Amino acid sequence: MWHLSRFHPSEIIDLAVQIEERGVEFYEELAKKANRKEIKDLLLFLASEEKRHVLEFEKLGADFEAVSPRETYPGEYLDYVKSTVETHMFNDLDRVRQLVEASNSESDIIGLAASFEKDSILFFSSFRRLVGGDKQTVIDDLIKEEERHLVRLARIRKGL
Which end of the chain is more exposed for a tag (fewer CB within 10 A), N or C? Predict the structure, then answer.
């Protein structure tokens, strides 16, 4: 079990960077499978957004210090953060590759992309409570971007 006393703040930054880097590859692979220009362009745009998010997290990590959220038992919140990481779709890369390979329709492609965005929103939201002060604004902005991505994906999927 993680506990704040045994937790190094850079670990959470490393996890966030890793998720975003995998997101770049994920969107680029999905874009190769898309037939419609509108969908391909959106997926490539999302890949570029993930690249930018990597830079944002790296900047955030330069002087990051975790704060202690309110807990009902020691380690409760980090157990939750760990759970969001363990259940994130990129925790099982083999399964993600299988899902990408099995995506035969643009609806499947958009659905996978939406799942990634939702998992990322959940992870970033849990991460936010470990961040103090002005750094919360950075996380809030990233969450808002992921929410906008999800809305764009939903609109495209609705139009299919």
Answer: N
In tens, the pLDDT along 50-104 reads: 999 999 988 887 776 667 777 788 878 777 877 887 888 887 888 888 999 999 8
Cβ count within 10 A of residue 82: 17
Using the 8-state DSSP alphabet, how is residue 105 labeled? S
Residue 88: count of CB within 10 angstroms of its CB: 20
Whether 66 and 131 have beta carbons less than 8 Å apart is answered as yes
Kindly list the distances between the CA atom of residue 6 and the CA atoms of 100, 130, 144, in Å, as whole numbers in the listed order.
36, 14, 31
∠59-64-66 over CA atoms, to 5°? Answer: 145
Q: What is the pTM of this model?
A: 0.82
Domains, the chain, ordered by start: 4-159 (1.20.1260.10)
Half-sphere exposure of 20 (CA within 13 A, CB side): 22
Contact, 42 vs 114, CB < 8 A? no
Q: 85 and 130 in contact (C-beta within 8 Å)?
A: no
